[in-house]
Amino acid sequence: MSMRLNKGLFAVGAALAAAGVAASTVPAAAADAPRFLAPKELPPHASSAWTAGPVTAGQPDPLPMCVGEALPSTSVHRAYRTDYDTGALQVTVVERSEQRAKDFAGLLRKKLDSCAETVMKLDPGTTAEQKYYGKVAAEEGAHVYGVHTVTSWGASDINLFSVGRDGNTVTLVTWGQMGGFADAQVADFKTTTATAVNKLW
Question: Domain residues of the chain, as ranges?
Answer without folding.
Answer: 13-198
